[in-house]
Amino acid sequence: MVELAQEYLTLRRQLGYALATPGQALLAFARYADSIRHRGPVTIDLAVRWAKLPQKAKPYWWARRLQIVRGFAQHRSLFEPGTEIPPADLLGPYFRRSTPHIYSNAEICALLRAAKDLGPAGGLRCHSYVTLFGLLISSGLRISEALHLQRDEVDLRSGVLTVARSKFRKSRLVPLHPSTTHALAKYAERRNRYHPEATARTFFINERGAPMGYSGVIGTFTDLRCQLGWTKNREGRRPRLHDMRHTMAVRTLLRWCQQGADVDQKILALCTYLGHVEVTDTYWYLTAVPELMALTAARFQAYSRHRSRRGR
Asked: Which of 135, 183, 268, 276 is the most exposed place for a label (fewest CB within 10 A)?
């Protein structure tokens, strides 16, 4: 089974799919099948037994594991007629949307102030984090996209970022607000002064002049979150870095509604800006915050009054 899984992953990756985490999970399934001496095609029983191995996991995690095997089984059914494809909803939904945290202006300012105080005193670290967090909240970039930005992908003259080979291996241009471009230019000047001979070509670097790492950034953000006393919500989750992307999408929609813009047309631009394949991916980032609900209620009241006058 391991050999078959590797063949499948090779084919999918040649088609442009990264399959990093799902690939590891599928190979774990294949190793499990070989370890229990399973012979023959994939069966529903085999797939479910492996999916539910983490007995204390939540049901949607089981469903997600089963979904990975399901894709493999669909492929194998082309070559082995006896292959059983698990029904899509056999273990329930495989993805559950947790309510994101939409940052307030006060929270953003508090986070940037806390980042400004990061040590060592007089070092580059505080400037790297203030600028990184500011870029995330103003542009809606994924944290991985911001950390992978190369220096030649940040055009400070035109104020445009080139996000290369991001999720789904898509590339896009991201125009920035002039204030964001100004902040990036100030950081670049300070970075070059601190590390004029740094070998790292990433735009953001750490105190040693090396690229900023994902785990280090998450660890620092977690420390700042604790320092600020940000507590868990009703679902047991605290604000995340990725919630800045949600916040940017919601704030953009709110601004359009306040301006009376044609949201149905504008949403396509937001979809492209965020690097989404489908507009439904952008809808995933929208949350009914009180400001949006108030605008919706006001529009509905205006619509109702208009309808009632026409009916007289």
From this structure: 268
